[in-house]
Amino acid sequence: MTDTAVTDGAVAITRTVDARGSYCPGPLMELIRSIRESQVGDVIAVYSSDKGSKTDIPKWIEKAGHRLVALEARDGYDEIIVEKMR
Amino acid sequence: MQRILILGGGVGGTLTANLLVKKLRKRIDQGDVEIVVVDATGQHVYQPGFMYIAMGGERAAGLSRPERSLLDKRVTLVVGEVAKVDESTETVLLTDGRALTYTHLVLATGSRIVPESIEHFTDEAHHFYTAEAAADLRLALDTFREGRIVIGIAGMPYKCPPAPLEVAFLIESELHDRGIRDAAEMHFCSPIGRAFTIESVSEMATPILVGKGIELHTFFNVEAIDPDRRVVQSLEGEELPYDLLILVPPHKGQQFLIDSGLAPAPGGWLPTDRHTLQVGGRSNVWALGDATDLPLSKAGSTAHFEAPVVAERVAADVEGRAPAGKHVDYEGKVMCFFEIGDGKGTLLQFDYDHPPRPPKPNQLWHLGKIVFNKTYWHTVPKGRV
Is pTM beyond 0.90 here? Predict the structure, then answer.
């Protein structure tokens, strides 16, 4: 995985978690809370300025059985898009 | 008359009140300033001691003292439960109908545990976040002879981040001493991708887990407890059977902070400036301790090092001057001892810019923690350290 993974094209974001300014494990915990509140098939975008998120969150997504749709480096933060699979 | 209202008589509230007396003694004696602490019970509880009820022969009676005995005589203590903060009138309303106005508000309202937010937690899981729960855990450990012990964290953030690891290490050490270590399987569940949130501490703790034969399960966010099958299930789809289940309960900020529009739901943590400790950009409201949303340990130590900054900033505002001296800004300082069992401990000391570099565990740091616990009443709340 790199900082600029290719996106899946046009993906409809169901909800956005803006965790910029939050530090590890804040963004992951925000994503987990959002996943708990979401339906299967929902697509969640996480904004994180914590450098650890771009490695921690994809690892969690894999362990939890969801799908990493995209990981994009933005201006001063990363955007991580995940689809809830189960 | 300016009234500084401090909500909460824990470490942060008590220390802030006493430090403010030192800074504003003359104005208080002249009747120009009043300092009021509002506390729900009027009892100051040394919460880090709860773990030692379960692990080290501590008793609940030794962990509680009247808040009045820790406050300077110039501080007014009001015992009552807060219902709401009305910012439009700068008034705090108590559940018994009393109303207290303020010119300066300090929120040292701590955190609360919500074990009931996970079904079957109360019946199936042990914890050590109240004196009663810790005593129950002690009884469970006394009767434990063999089986699977699962220790985990059922929600973040939570008070005293090292505590679950400490408990795992101390239980392992105890089982060893009792000659039943081989009859026990031990599992430690972490919600994140490593044993501890801070990487350097994780690097220190993980080999100790390995050395003690405690299996680490990462990304284990407790989702459900099945009492019939006696398994704890994670959001990530993992299941762990248990004979003895020990979980840090989920924590939240105080409900009245959400109801008053000071903190967002569902967590209830106050949006706090990391340096000035002001709440949500308000010029006359500060927060410290567990109540904040700062990316720091929810621990008495954090409140201990935040209190001088809050006291300086409040005093400066009262006196109409700019904050000055070495406590103008909070730099994230936290310092706490970390038990690793076998009579050894280490020290975690860090701030926003410097992660901890824990020294090699030894007996000295373990003894340091014991001495600190015993001398707490005479030192921290009174601003002597």
Answer: yes
B224: contact with A, CB 8 A cutoff = no
- Please tell me which of the candidates A25, A59, A86 has its beta carbon nearest to residue B156: A25
Cβ-contact B245, B225 below 8 angstroms: yes
Range of the domain at B190: 117-250
Number of domains in chain A: 1
CA distance A9 to chain B (A): 27
Closest Cα of chain B to A3: distance in Å?
19
Enter the DSSP assignment of B382.
Answer: T
Rg (alpha carbons) of chain A, rounded to whole number: 11
- pLDDT, tens only, B102-159: 999 999 999 999 999 999 999 999 999 999 999 999 999 999 999 999 999 999 999 9
Question: Which CATH number goes with the domain that contains A65?
Answer: 3.30.110.40
Look up A24 and say whether it is catalytic.
Answer: yes
Three-state secondary structure call for residue A18: strand
Q: Total structural domains in chain B?
A: 2
Q: Is residue B350 part of a domain?
A: no
B352 in a domain, yes or no? no
